[in-house]
Every structure is written in structure tokens, then in C-alpha cells.
Amino acid sequence: MTLRSMAIAAALVAAPLTALAEGGTPVTLKGEMIDTWCYYSGVMGGPDAVVGSAHHTCAMWCSAGGIPVGLLAEDGTVYMVLKIGEDATSNGGDAAFALASHTVTVDGTAYARDGINYLTIAKVTADEGIVNLTHEEYGVVPPFAIPEAGQ
Amino acid sequence: MIRVGLALLALAVPAAAQDFSAGSEAQSWNLYAEAPARFEATVVDPLCMMSGDCPADCGGGARQLALLRTDDSVLVMPLKNNQPLFTGAPNELAPFCGAAVEVDGLMLTDPDLALRNAYQVQKIRRQGDAEWTKANQWTKDWTARNAGADGKGAWYLRDPRIRAAIAANGYLGLGPEADKAVLEDAN
Known about the structure:
The complex is a heterodimer of chains A (151) and B (187).
Chain A: H1 3-22, E1 25-35, H2 36-41, H3 56-64, E2 69-73, E3 78-84, H4 94-97, E4 103-113, E5 116-127, H5 135-138, H6 147-150
Parallel strand pairs in A: 3-5
Antiparallel strand pairs in A: 1-2, 1-4, 2-3, 4-5
Chain B: H1 2-16, E1 34-44, H2 46-51, E2 66-69, E3 75-80, H3 90-93, E4 100-110, E5 115-126, E6 133-134, H4 138-145, H5 155-158, H6 160-169, H7 176-186
Parallel strand pairs in B: 3-5
Antiparallel strand pairs in B: 1-2, 1-4, 2-3, 4-5, 5-6
């Protein structure tokens, strides 16, 4: 057995156990609840254009459509939100939908696995609403999110 | 022993970046960070894996689901299904909770955004099955749940919850008055 195959075998055994054994890290985070697909894929433009008020309607579409909602923290880290309070409905759930584009402060538990960060939110301790007024620079993203403006 | 394990894990990291494009028939979406990726995996519940909250059926379709890749035990997070309609992947994966599957789609890797192991599922099948299922289930499920949401346009223009939120807070989420200013600028 080569060193590489030994390493892979060790990773196969150790990685799931590590995730479970380590548990998460208690965190308090402030950031914006975002639509992860548009943010990461670039399908609507750069990341600065697909956050805040400019992208609010699209963020609701994506949240309702079951795209993972993320918390974009102040340091730029994105956390995939798996639970908010007692609501584990991360596939289009009401708790996440109601917070689309809002800047919030949360207490919760952060996890990391294979380059992706995950978050369970125990409590939203502050909800500032939509304060990232990106429409002032970008208009509406995508433009057809306001039907009359997109015509 | 722990240090040895960590060292071995560190050596294994390059395997996570290996090429899974062989045999892929994924359609390009012309995304900056995309690469075709076809691989075998087990459909898992990430909330269960992280927190130990583990309903028997992965949450019955209510939760985000992930793909634990067979080759390297990397946890791949699907963000999107195959429909260009603002729709995610959980409805496509939920019927396969706990099952060994093969998927084909696009992997997103973008060092500028510290992104890796995010995925768009285009089609899925149980390992050993001949037939693929296109990952186009979401809108069928929405139509079944929203029989009264009549009107023209795509689901997101007719969805009652979205329409109610826009009626209350506007398209920008800042109130109808803020929308007026944007509309005046556009027209």
C-alpha cells in the first residue's frame, strides 16, 4: 500500500468521525442572509451585486426555491444555514425566507467540512432588516425582478 | 497517533481536488467556476452529520441534503438542481435519502470566494440503475402544492408567499415607496 493510498484510506475513515467527534464551535456572528447560488455561481454578476436590496426579490425566489440560504459574515465567510431556532426546514422554510437580505446577529454553532462552512442558528439576537442598500449602485439584480423595470 | 492521522489527512487533501469529469455528460451553464463532475456518493443529511439531529428520513424533504462522495469521503454540497428557475436540489435528492447514487452535474470551485465542493445536480440515479432521472422535480412539486396559484409566468412570479412579501415590503424589501424611485429611474 502506497503512502497516498494509506492517506486516502485514513481520510475515508477519519473524516466522518472528525465531523461528528469535533462537534461545532459556538459562535456569535453578524452578517447578511444571502442566496448562495447567485453569490457563488456568478450567474447574476459579481458577489457585490447579488446581496442587499438590489437582489432582495431574487433572494426570496431562491430561498423559497430551496437553494441554501447563507449567512455572509462580516469577515467574508459564508455559512450554509441548516437550522434557525427550532425550524430545521432549510429547504424553503419560513424562518429563512423572512430574513432574506436582512442583516442579523445570531448565536449559534458553526461547523466546517471539506471547505464548506455550516451554521445552526440557536437565536437571532438582532435583526436590522435590509440595510445593505445595493440598489443605489446596481439597480435591481436581475433587472426583471421588478417586472415593470425589466420591460 | 492523532498527529499521524492529521498528517495523513493533510496528504489526502489533493485527492479532494481530483478531476471527476470522466464520463460526465453535464451541460455547461457558462459559469466562471464550473467543471463537469460525475461521481458516486451517498445522499446524506448534513444537519444530522454536523449536529446529531437525525430523523430517519433525512427530514422528509424539509432539509438541505448533501452528497458524501464515495471515492474520497468528501462532503459535496448541492446548491442547485437542473432547472434555470431559482430552484435548489433538496427535492431532487430527498427520494434517495441514505441511498448510494451516481450524480452528474457541475462542480463549482472558486478560490477567490474560498469555494470548493459546491455542486449543481443535473441528473441522478441509484448505483446499478440504467436510467437517469433529470433533476427537474422541483417545479412539479411546487405545482402540486400550489394548485390555486394561477396566472402567467414562472412559479416565482405566482408563488403566494413571495407575492405576499412583495405586496407588504416591495421588491427591494424597503417598502413600496422605495420601489417607485427605482421604477421612475428605469422608465
